[in-house]
Design brief:
The structure is a single chain. Helix 4 packs across helix 5. The chain is about 40% helix and about 15% strand. It folds into 2 domains: about 60 residues, Arc Repressor Mutant, subunit A; about 70 residues, Lrp/AsnC effector binding domain/regulation of amino acid metabolism (RAM) domain (Alpha-Beta Plaits, 2-Layer Sandwich), CATH 3.30.70.920. Strand 2 and strand 3 form a beta hairpin. It has 7 helices and 4 strands; from the N terminus they run αααααβαββαβ. The chain starts with a helix and ends in a 16-residue tail after the last strand.
Length: about 180
């Protein structure tokens, strides 16, 4: 169909009204978007999955996946990184510590201090009985005991700790760190 013929078919459109219409803006980086959630779920299973494979599974174009992933990365909502699973690498000690923060100190300050330690893989500020939940993984029992002695029990910012050592891990979907470098 020629351009002149198409132009004749759409002559009834009032171009002023068309220009006044607000442009439809789609936030392709939103975590509430169902397609983004599906993309993220697939990348959580395999962060190296090809965009073509994701596109085929979700019945969209590869370009759509590429654009969505790039938008989410640019918005700071998605970062694809390699994270070692403590169960897979068979750490000898995996424990969750419930910390009560000492008076005059803040959960944020304690979390910042602990976040730089390689054995600490998870820190969550919580309500209830504890102020922080801290997951610690160590190569052996002696390393874990040294960690407790040096970083927890001998620190003035920790008032009390409950140590819960892992017996069996039933699910470990992912590990998060707030301040990726």
């Amino acid at each position: 169909m020629g351009a002149g013929r198409i132009a004749k078919q759409v002559t009834g459109i009032d171009e002023r009204k068309l220009a006044e219409r607000p442009a439809r803006i789609v936030d392709t980086s939103s975590p509430r978007d169902e397609l983004n959630r599906s993309i993220i779920a697939m990348l959580q299973q395999d962060g190296r999955m090809a965009f073509a494979e994701i596109a085929h599974a979700l019945d969209v174009s590869e370009g759509t996946i590429r654009n969505r992933v790039n938008s989410m990365k640019h918005a700071g909502m998605l970062r694809i990184v390699a994270i070692a699973d403590p169960v897979a690498v068979e750490y000898k000690t995996d424990a969750m510590l419930g910390l009560k923060i000492a008076a005059g100190h803040t959960p944020q300050a304690v979390a910042e201090r602990l976040s730089h330690l390689p054995d600490v893989v998870y820190i969550l500020w919580v309500s209830g009985r504890f102020d922080l939940l801290v997951e610690v993984v160590s190569d052996d029992r002696d390393d874990f005991l040294e960690f407790l002695e040096c970083e927890i029990h001998n620190q003035p910012d920790v008032a009390d700790v409950e140590t819960m050592t892992g017996l069996k891990n039933y699910k470990n979907q992912f590990l998060l760190k707030r301040n990726w470098s």
